[in-house]
Write a structure and sequence with these properties.
3 helices, alpha+beta
Length: about 140
């Protein structure tokens, strides 16, 4: 990975997108184990159906983790200063999520040269799942 520099980045630059395989039950179970989020609505089909859902669905924080991967494949995690998201839709089994990002501002923050990056994830139908932004310090 070539780390971007403040001088090489322009407003409007896009991060290399991250395309993920369709969500499956194995992914949900592995994330539940790794994160400690064992809410049965994400791993128990019967529970999800009793709650009015057609099936289990991805944890919101799994979607945020994918956006975090988008960011840290672009710049090292140690340069991430802030990362905020809004959950906008459910990621169902079979959804193939695509994460994207775009530089929207260059600024100085706490004595560091930074960029503000808008990030978003959407399913294969173009429906937004998560939107947010990150502040990344660049040398």
């Amino acid at each position: 990975m070539t780390t971007p520099t403040y001088d090489s980045i322009q407003i409007g630059d896009e991060l290399p997108p991250l395309q993920l395989a369709p969500v499956n039950r194995t992914t949900l179970a592995l994330f539940a184990g790794a994160s400690g989020d064992h809410n049965p609505i994400h791993i128990d089909t019967d529970f999800a159906r009793r709650a009015g859902m057609p099936d289990v669905f991805a944890q919101g924080m799994l979607g945020m983790a994918w956006l975090g991967r988008l960011l840290t494949q672009w710049a090292p995690q140690s340069q991430l200063r802030r990362f905020d998201v809004r959950f906008q839709g459910i990621t169902h089994i079979g959804h193939a999520v695509r994460c994207t990002g775009r530089v929207v501002e260059k600024l100085e923050h706490n004595g560091e040269r930074c960029v503000r990056v808008e990030v978003q994830s959407a399913n294969q139908y173009g429906q937004a799942r998560i939107a947010g932004e990150a502040l990344v310090a660049l040398r």
